[in-house]
Design brief:
Blueprint (H helix, E strand, L loop, with lengths): L17 H7 L12 E9 L3 E5 L6 E4 L15 E8 L7 E4 L4 H15 L3 E8 L3 E6 L2 E6 L16 E10 L4 E5 H19 L5 E10 L2 E7 L2 E6 L20 E10 L4 E5 L7 H5 L8 E10 L2 E7 L2 E6 L6 E2 L7 E10 L4 E6 L9 E2 H4 L23
Parallel strand pairs: 3-5, 13-15
Antiparallel strand pairs: 1-2, 1-4, 2-3, 4-5, 6-7, 6-9, 7-8, 9-10, 11-12, 11-14, 12-13, 14-15, 16-17, 16-20, 17-18, 19-22, 20-21
Length: 389
């Protein structure tokens, strides 16, 4: 009968120290490096220090000034972020800072707010050529000028607190871009949905000028609602510079032309409150009538002439004779009506008097931009010098 020999395995020695325990275990503590931000669980809180379990060989400790102002609210069991100032001191503890970790914590909050579209509170710090630098609880961000409301543009936003929306975030590049207009647009859209119930086309309202732009006037209608009077709706007269007629704070009366809640827009008119001079003054005009007008300006496509207050006509370049009296704004010229279109507010004119040919100058000299070629000039050859015998 055969027997099987059993080989006994040597008895393993139980770990006697922490080093032996770690060596015999598959557990490896996380590497704690100076300058990194770690997450840990609060073990104890005292007036002078806070002990934190950060998953290393020993606890982390926060003490002195590095506790910051938020240490009074800390409680055992809570998870917090801490900045590693020293990976291990003489006693084997990791020295941490709660104060310096605040920025990292804020960045993580901003990432959540960026994903959710939640508005954030900012405070204006300084301006540069591109926009406004803002502070978000220790983190610096930037709002381009195109994304600022008029109330905070330029130096107006310095020192002011307001809400904005994060539109671009790159933690590694330390890049944080915000927009006030994006947030305002969302807020205004909701307001305009309600405004659509209060305003109707044809309604006459009183308001105050809240902005003067080259293309029109912004008018405050109350409750944070603004409408736009396009420059073409300001007056029946031709308007070139609104800043000469209006300033912020002026009271105006307007008429509602259109309400578009989906676009967050109310279109207004000032001139619609007055009578259309075309209906009254132009109804009597017909092709062939002769009259006199005052020159307003010359352009590439013709000369604009004022016939009556609020009523202009155009002498098109193609209809101007080869020669025309040299004119300037304010001059009077004799005209013949070629056609009238009251619906389109358009009158085409012809020059009536061509008898002053001896005093005329070429049109190409009056409106040079309207011509691709210029008159040829005769070049005089310099006289040759002769040597005296």
């Amino acid at each position: 009968m055969s027997t099987t020999k059993v080989t006994k395995k040597p008895a393993t020695k139980s770990p006697q120290t922490m080093e032996e325990l770690l060596a015999s275990s598959s557990f490896q503590p996380k590497a704690i490096r100076r300058g990194s931000v770690v997450e840990g669980t609060i073990l104890s809180v005292s007036p002078i220090e806070v002990l934190i379990d950060i998953g290393g060989k020993s606890e982390g400790v926060i003490s002195g000034r590095e506790l910051g102002d938020g240490s009074k609210e800390l409680k055992p069991g809570e998870k917090i972020l801490a900045y590693v100032m020293q990976s291990e001191d003489e006693s084997g503890q990791t020295i941490l800072s709660l104060k310096r970790a605040g920025g990292e914590k804020r960045w993580r909050e901003l990432e959540d707010e960026f994903k959710s579209g939640k508005p954030v509170e900012v405070r204006g710090l300084e301006t540069n050529r591109g926009g406004l630098v803002v502070d978000l609880d220790g983190v610096r961000g930037f709002i381009p000028s195109s994304q600022l409301d008029s109330s905070n543009s330029g130096s107006l936003g310095i020192g002011k607190s307001f809400t904005a929306k994060v539109i671009e975030l790159d933690r590694k590049a330390n890049r944080l871009i915000l927009s006030q207009r994006a947030l305002t647009a969302e807020t205004n859209r909701r307001k305009f949905e309600e405004a659509a119930k209060k305003f109707s086309v044809g309604q006459e309202l009183g308001g105050k000028v809240s902005g003067v732009m080259p293309y029109g006037l912004f008018v405050s209608l109350g409750e944070g609602i603004e409408g736009l009077v396009h420059i073409s709706e300001v007056s029946w007269d031709r308007v070139s510079n609104l800043a000469e007629l209006y300033k912020i704070g002026d009271e105006v009366k307007v008429k509602v032309l259109n309400v578009d809640p989906s676009a967050g827009r109310i279109n207004l008119s000032i001139k619609a409150l007055g009578a259309d001079p075309w209906k009254e003054k132009i109804a009597k005009l017909k092709p062939g009538d002769k009259l006199q007008g005052e020159v307003i300006k010359s352009t590439q496509f013709g000369v604009f002439v004022q016939l009556e207050r609020g009523v202009d006509g155009l002498i098109r370049t193609a209809k101007i004779p080869e020669y025309m009296v040299e004119i300037k704004p304010g001059d009077k010229i004799d005209l013949v009506i070629e056609s009238v279109s009251p619906e389109q507010h358009r009158i085409s004119l012809l020059v009536d008097d061509e008898t002053k040919a001896d005093t005329l100058k070429p049109l190409s000299e009056l409106v040079p931009d309207a011509f691709s070629t210029t008159p040829e000039t005769t070049r005089k050859e310099p006289k040759k010098k002769t040597k005296k015998g």
